C-alpha cells in the first residue's frame, strides 16, 4: 500500500518503521519484523534509518535482547511520534527521504529494500536475483496471489499462533505449513529448463557427478571472491555439492556467473525428447533459484522447526520436503552470515524421505484453498467471460464505434506504448 502526504524531512535517508510486540516487561520481535531485519542483514544495506515501534501502551518496555542483527543500527520510537503518513499504515513501512511517499506492507517493503540495495551497488547479483524471473517475486499483492498470501500472511500467522500454544498441548502442524509442504512437491518450472535437464540426463548417463561438483566449486570460488568486497564478510562456507540443481542455483547468485559450457551435448542426449528428460529437483521455495520468498519463509520456518522439535520431534517426519529445503537454504552464501547476525542458530535435521501417503496431508489445508482447487480452471478470453455474465443475467449491449476510421500513427509515439513493443 502506498500513501502520499505533503511533508518534508530532508533527512537524506529513507526511514524504515518496524513493529515490536510486548511480552511481560520486554519488547519482542514479531515475525514480519524478523523477516525485514534478516533481509537488511543479508543485503548489508545502509540506505535506511531503522526505527522500532513498540506496541501501544508499552512505551516504557525494555528493548528486545535478541533478534536484532548486529550489523543493522536501530532506534526506538513511540507510536505517537510516528510521522502522520505512517500512522495510518500497517507496519512495516518505508518513508522516502522527502517524507512525501510511504510504502507499506511486508512484500512491498522487502522488494524496495532489494531495489535500493542494487541501486547503491549494481554488482550485488546475489541481491538482485532475489526478485526472481522478470523481477516479479512477490510482486502481486496477497489479495490476488495465493503464493504471496501464503508467504506474506498465512505462514507467518500460522507460526505465530503455533508459538503461542501451551507446551503441554499436543501440537498439530498448521494447515498453512502443510500447504507449503505440498507446494514444495510440485514440479519445477524455470526458464530454459530443457538445457539443465539434458545436463542432468548426461550426468545420470555417466553414472557420476564430477561435472556438477566442478560447477559447484567454481560457484563457491566466485561467491567467496564477491564476499571479500569491502563492507561484507565471507561466510566461510565451502560449497561442495553433487546436486546439479543446487550448483546451478548457486552459480546464479555470483557476480561473475560460471561460464556456460560451449561444447554441444552428445547426440544421444540431444535426441532425447523433452518429455523423456528427468525432472528437476526443487531446491528452493519457487523452484530452482533462491528468491525473496525463501528470505520471507526462513525466519518463520526456523522458529517453527525449533518449537516443533522441542514439542514433538517425531512430527518433523511429516515435513520431509520442508526439512530438505531448510538444509538447502543454508548452502546459499550470505545466509549463514545474516542468520548469525540475527541470532538464528540453524538446527541439524535428519534426512526424511517423502512417504507414499504424503499427498493425503493436503486434506488439512485451509477450506478456501481446497475449494479453489475443486473449481473448474478459469478459461480466459472475451467469449467465455461474456457467456458467464449472460448466465448470471448480465448482458452487454454493443454500440457502434464512434470513430471507426480513426487510426493512430504508432511510429510517432514512444516505443513503450506501441503494442508491438510492450510486454
Topology, pairings included?
Elements: E1 2-4, E2 14-19, E3 21-23, E4 26-28, H1 31-43, E5 48-53, E6 74-76, H2 84-87, E7 93-95, E8 101-104, H3 106-120, H4 125-128, H5 146-164, H6 175-184, H7 193-206, H8 210-227, H9 244-251, H10 267-270, H11 292-311, H12 320-329, H13 335-341, H14 367-374, H15 382-391
Parallel strand pairs: 2-5, 5-6
Antiparallel strand pairs: 1-8, 2-7, 3-4, 7-8
Helix pairs in contact: 1-3, 1-11, 1-13, 5-6, 5-11, 6-12, 8-9
Report on this model:
It comes from Latimeria chalumnae. InterPro entries: Glutathione-S-Trfase_C-like, Glutathione-S-Trfase_C_sf. The chain has 423 residues and is α/β, with parallel strands linked by helices. The protein has 3 domains: 2-131, Glutaredoxin; 146-186 and 289-353, no CATH class; 193-276, no CATH class. Helix content is 39%, strand content 7%. It has 15 helices and 8 strands. The chain has helices at 31-43, 84-87, 106-120, 125-128, 146-164, 175-184, 193-206, 210-227, 244-251, 267-270, 292-311, 320-329, 335-341, 367-374, 382-391, and strands at 2-4, 14-19, 21-23, 26-28, 48-53, 74-76, 93-95, 101-104. The strands form 2 sheets. A 6-stranded mixed beta sheet has the order 1-8-7-2-5-6, covered by helices on one side. Strands 3-4 form a two-stranded antiparallel sheet. Strand 7 and strand 8 (101-104) form a beta hairpin. Helix 5 runs parallel beside helix 11. It is globular and about 70 Å long. The model is unreliable at 1-11, 222-240, 255-262 and 356-378 (pLDDT under 50).
